[in-house]
Amino acid sequence: MEKDKSPDNIPAKGLSIGTVGAIAAAVLFVVGAVMMVDNYRLGAGWAIDGPDAGYFPFRIGLIISISAAVIFFQSLFGKERNAAIFVRNEQLKPVLMVLVPTAAYVLAIQLIGIYVSSAIFIAAFMRIMGKHGWLKTALVSVGISAILFWLFEAQFLVPLPKGPLETWFGY
Hints:
- With 171 residues, the chain is mainly alpha-helical.
- It has helices at 17-42, 55-77, 89-112, 114-129, 134-155, 164-168; strands at residues 14-16, 46-47, 50-51, 85-88.
- It folds into two domains: 1-83; 89-171, no CATH class.
- The strands form two sheets. Strands 1-4 form a two-stranded antiparallel sheet. It has a two-stranded antiparallel sheet with strand order 2-3.
- Helix 1 runs antiparallel to helix 2, helix 3 (89-112) runs antiparallel to helix 4 and helix 4 (114-129) packs antiparallel against helix 5.
């Protein structure tokens, strides 16, 4: 198997296919474990009238966890593990530049509500990635959040997660 090379004919550095497989397997293992714990809480046994609510989902979580554990160990320690580069470090940077702020945005929605979080998220991307000026950034980010607030809260009457600012305004 030929080594992956960068444009300068230097061996590329990055995550191997085996490492990415192990990471994905670890995430799936956690998903399966959470399914098992939650469905055990609901009741994963057999009742007099048939299976409890968590009977089948518990077993699906168990299958996911076992499969993920097998894939994890095969990816890291198997005889046919794939050491080819899945993604080079320079390719990973732009992905993380979107993934990390998006994860922070999702967390911020829980803390300060969707409208303020959205304004900050849009402003950050416009300023940092788009290199737009402050006035344009402020008008677009606040304007979009205000329009969405009006649309969902006043027109559709769909309550979305609100934070302290909306609560202060009485919503």
